[in-house]
Amino acid sequence: MKHTISHIKVLKRLVAVSFPVLLMLLFTACELQKSYEYEYCKPSPKLNMTAWEFISSHDSLDLLEQCIFLTGLENYYQEDVVRTFIAPTNEGIQQYLSEHDYASIEDVPLPILRNVLKYHMVNARVTFTDPELSASNQPIAYPCENGQIMYLSHNTGYQGLVNQGTKSRWTIATSNLEPTNGIIHVIASVVYFAAEGGDTSHDIAFETDTIYPLHDAFVNAGSLADENYGSDSILKVQHVSGHSDSDQKAYLMFNLGEFEKEADVIGMELEMAVNLTGGAGAGLKLYAVQDQSWDESGLTWNNAPAADPDPLAGIATTAVSAFSFDLGDYYKGLTGNETLSLMLDGEAGSGEANEFASKEHEELPAPMMIATYSGGAGDLKLTNNTGLSLESGGAFVLSSEVLEVTGTAPENIIYVLEEAPLNGWLFIGASVLEQGDRFTQMDVNLMNVLYVHDGLTTADHVVLSVMDKSDAYLDDFNVEIAIQ
Questions:
Q1: Where are the domains of the chain?
Q2: pLDDT-based confidence at residue 408 (cuts at 50, 70, 90)
Q3: Which of 45, 217, 344, 380 is in Cβ range 3.0-4.6 Å of 250 for a Cys bridge?
């Protein structure tokens, strides 16, 4: 590639030697400054060459020329379609590479580089002498080739400005150069769009409610199979052979109707205080029991109801003060405020002894069923989720037409990226979003959020969750990405 560009430059410089008078006339009125201190250049006389010819004839724009050549976008700079080209200097491109840890232009993924260049193409003819830009410091939004917008304006000294009024703005170095296919403004930076989308620093503080067992007891196998331990302060769990004197299981029963809150439940867990554990990583499994006719005063090994064959939840023992079993998914399948009966058993053959506080324990907390609620003050609703559709290697700017959650002000609706795209990149400004990063509905509305496909695969998706400032919450959902 460098060899090809080098030959192009040699040919063009030979032409330049053949036409010195033409070049002298060409740049007498509008010369590109080596120092790139601002020069206001009136749009007359014309350059009498295309934007591509201008860029490829200036050493100070060598890296921009390489970017254009690598991405195959030469036609945009030489076709007879009027655009305004924002042309970053070598200095600006080197700074971009350094800030994003790229050793060279070749290290930038081509779809990302192509999107960067297309943002620097404004689909309009814009000079800073245009009547609509006559007022100072009054940015006007113009559409860019990548689907986002760029704000252009000037200060009181008529220095051109890019994206004034957003999170980042830049000053034009040389303005109003007029090739045959539009306008060129030279700038010492790679620019991007990042409007103010709202504060995403809010950490959600969920509310909880707790209930305690109606009944809890352990049962013992072997010669103790007819003994009742309903008044014992300890719940013992151990699996040796399944029928020896050392085999024990714990039973618990909860009335879910005792939960007092009426907000949406987004989590449910059983927490049991540990009195004794080997903590060696042996498994403990929690099962549902459909027969709820038992009570702690009469329960024995021989009359204990059978549990369902598949566990609801499980953990590996560790040296901690309490074990928690996640019952969120199971709870979502229940029909109402019903009675929940459970059995806790050890891993088959592990022989590890575990003891938990029962509701009769005088020092340790009783078993607890803990419900977690969304804040409930908001009423979040996923209004639009159409998915994205774009060409392979292309870019797609998100908007409220494809992704919208309603229920409160858009700047207070916070998306959390639970799963980043596998076959592309999600951007805000020049930053790639990673798992755990956040953006707001206002970012989406302002077209701050951009997906770029890697050009190698046929489909992609991201997983998002949503919260707001009042702690309302939406569970994870997929945004599908179709590649044409």
A1: 2-187, 207-373, 381-483
A2: confident
A3: 344
